[in-house]
Amino acid sequence: MRHHQTTQQISLKKQWGATLLGMMFVAAALVFMALIAMKVFPAYQEYYSVKTVLAALNKEPLSSMSKKEIQESFNKRANTSYVTVVTGTDLTIDKNSAGETVASVEYQVIKPLFGNISILIDFSSAK
Question: Domain-by-domain residue ranges, the chain?
Fold first, then answer.
């Protein structure tokens, strides 16, 4: 009988698994990551809208347009794409290596997370 008890004690020592505290820690980490994702996702979604608007704008013959016309064209496209973080006046209009006029933009978005903690995201459409 004594041998049976020691075998049972040994098998109990070999058992292991997730504790309640460990599961709570993992759940808290997942909730924190989900919170950050929910705050950051709209900024990235708008960034991809900005890139789409700029790609369409850069397909136009910008060399024949004035700076003001380029900005107005961007504003019209941005308005239909619900882009609010960037306007035509924020654009950088330059010539690329092939001598073509191209528009690009660089901007920052600050998203508050909780309390006095925020996240800063830098976006650039330059290739």
Answer: 40-127
